[in-house]
Amino acid sequence: xxxxxxxxxxxxxxxxxxxxxxxxxxxxxxxxxxxxxxxxxxxxxxxxxxxxxxxxxxxxxxxxxxxxxxxxxxxxxxxxxxxxxxxxxxxxxxxxxxxxxxxxxxxxxxxxxxxxxxxxxxxxxxxxxxxxxxxxxxxxxxxxxxxxxxxxxxxxxxxxxxxxxxxxxxxxxxxxxxxxxxxxxxxxxxxxxxxxxxxxxxxxxxxxxxxxxxxxxxxxxxxxxxxxxxxxxxxxxxxxxxxxxxxxxxxxxxxxxxxxxxxxxxxxxxxxxxxxxxxxxxxxxxxxxxxxxxxxxxxxxxxxxxxx
Length: 308
Ligand code: C5P
Fold this sequence. Notes:
Elements: E1 6-21, E2 32-50, E3 53-59, H1 72-84, E4 89-96, H2 106-122, H3 128-138, H4 142-147, E5 150-154, E6 159-162, E7 169-175, H5 182-193, H6 205-213, H7 216-222, E8 224-225, H8 228-234, H9 238-247, E9 252-255, E10 262-266, H10 269-282, E11 287-293, E12 299-301, H11 303-307
Parallel strand pairs: 1-8, 3-4
Antiparallel strand pairs: 1-2, 1-12, 2-4, 2-5, 5-6, 7-10, 7-11, 9-10
The structure holds cytidine-5'-monophosphate.
């Protein structure tokens, strides 16, 4: 948990098992019905006492992450300080493993971790519920990063409820070269959708049933992402990634969130290894990561765990 001088938090990335998107609202957001699923690909965030606010970024793709006040983790820390009338600052260090701009809510995860870490560091003692309210102000995916597990997201994605879900699932994540901007993917979704009528977003009964039974094949068949055509339109090479994984017998394959990470559901760890070898050899993606889910949300950890 930290020695008192420094606090460590580990936070997972997410994939969306399904994502249904409604028509653009007056607030600039789209109403969603989604199933979030936290997976065993984590960022680590440490928080140390300081007079001012600063952030250092290490790990993968660090050049793409702003190391100034625009970083969502810094904004999270400032928001908590402001609401709890804390006058000190914090020195944040982010160790990135969740792909940047990858559709896995890495920035949101860091913000959730920063809230939890600063709450502990400053002794402000906010409960999960209050932290969740601040999280929703920071971004649509931030509350889920606090909660973790498997959860239904509604509203902008910020209203999260744990889902009745059974079993552990094996995933192969195909990471793409470069990222996609979430607002640009939603804008492309609006452009492609302009001729079709809006409908209320819903999580399908097939998905809810597959979550309840934990049956991998049924879950794979129920996976769907309304944003996938928009992500494919902006990054056509993702189709090849999907084709390779599905031809190899994955139970399902879907672009996660606004992409470009593609998540493949496979029956077991052996199938995950086989698929990761094929995907790597195909050249259809930048890199491949094997993960399991669900895992818990942001949590305080001992420094020794932080370094492993
Ligand atoms: O909430 P977050 O900061 O992650 O959203 C980034 C952008 O993605 C929003 O400004 C909006 O353009 C788009 N978005 C949306 N509908 C949502 C979530 C995000 O249109 N439900």
